[in-house]
Amino acid sequence: MTFKEQYQKKLTTAAEAVKVVNSGDWVDYNWCATTPMALDAALAARADELCDVKVRGGVLLREPEIFKVENAKEHFTFDSWHMGGLERKAIQKGISFYNPIRYSELPRYYYDMDDARKPRIAMMIVSAMDAHGYFSFGPCPSHSKAICDMADIVIVEVNKNCPYVYGDPDASRIHISKVDMIVEGNNEPMSVLGGADAPMSEVDRAVAELILEEIPDGACLQLGIGGMPNAVGKLIAESDLKDLGVHTEMYVDAYVALAKAGKITGRKKTVLPGKQVFAFAAGSSELYEYIDRNPEIYGASVGWVNDARTVSQIDNFMSINNAVNLDLFGQVNAESAGVKHISGAGGQLDFVMGAYLSNGGKSFICCSSTFKDRNGQLQSRILPTLETGSIVTDTRANTHFLVTEYGKANLKGLSTWQRAEAIINIAHPDFRDELIKQADAMKIWRASNKR
Length: 451
Hints:
about 450 residues, 25 strands, about 30% helix
């Protein structure tokens, strides 16, 4: 039987495909831009017939239809491996919950799952099938293979707008022989991640300029999501830096701009030279067009991409990520505002550790020194200690560089009083005296610090 004949034999409608879902099932929606659309709508249409269907996914770029049904939490629970704005709202409605992870471990979580937790059904967007019977996982190789390997039933939703992404052949694609059902979706445009065109604030620029001073020619970049990492990318595109490489968890529009500006060659990369490596990608339509069948692009399993042992083998590795707030001990919270959930651990700790282990590598955690609360009052992001309920994403022993618009502090090897002094020096001036007072009360301040 030819691949085309197999395709036709397995082809069905979304409504027919989701009939395999039973109450109590675990269903995997995969991740980010490959979250199913037609299958999700068909499953939502069955809500009245189902209860306690547990769906896993993450980094949602559009609201799933299963969130919109009446009394959604009675029918569906969405467990997210990484939270975005849509999941945050769903938490408040009792639909969504967070799965704390270290992202590099995610494939293993699936392989170690017992029968009570493993996915019975996997459904995800893939590219059109190629001449050899393969569907690409598109912008999300990440942990897709692990999901499909562990699922009893694999349903793919073909979207002709899904880019075909080259990379690790064992992680970036799935063969038709391993697929149970094929659904042809409505070929809607891939879900985009907003913010790529957001103007750079003065604070973003100040932080980015401080980081730029630390990046040498030939460095390999990992940029987290958010305004400041994006600002670093924009400044690099305007700089004299050359022969940069890419090895990142998330591939974003900043890399496309850098590549088109001629800054990325990967010549000096010590792992997969010449390849732009990522675990998943999300951004504008331009990004999806750029990664489609681009021989420079290399999608791979997050279990390999994010592993600190992999990162440590890449010389001059520069990891740049955001924080919500941090304290005078050097603990970094990138996940919550107290008990209110904001994001997730993702791969930040993976890269914080891996970058420091790299020959010439550096890890930067950046944030603005302040923010305005809902009453318009200025609040410091640098606190004496993290608020009750705040999550320690990066422990004090792992934190390398902290950067705000007021400077940068390298915390490696510093004692508690040295850390407190260095961190207060990059706090907003309006809050420094109070931070000194608090540091003194916590016995991490020396009287000689201000002499």
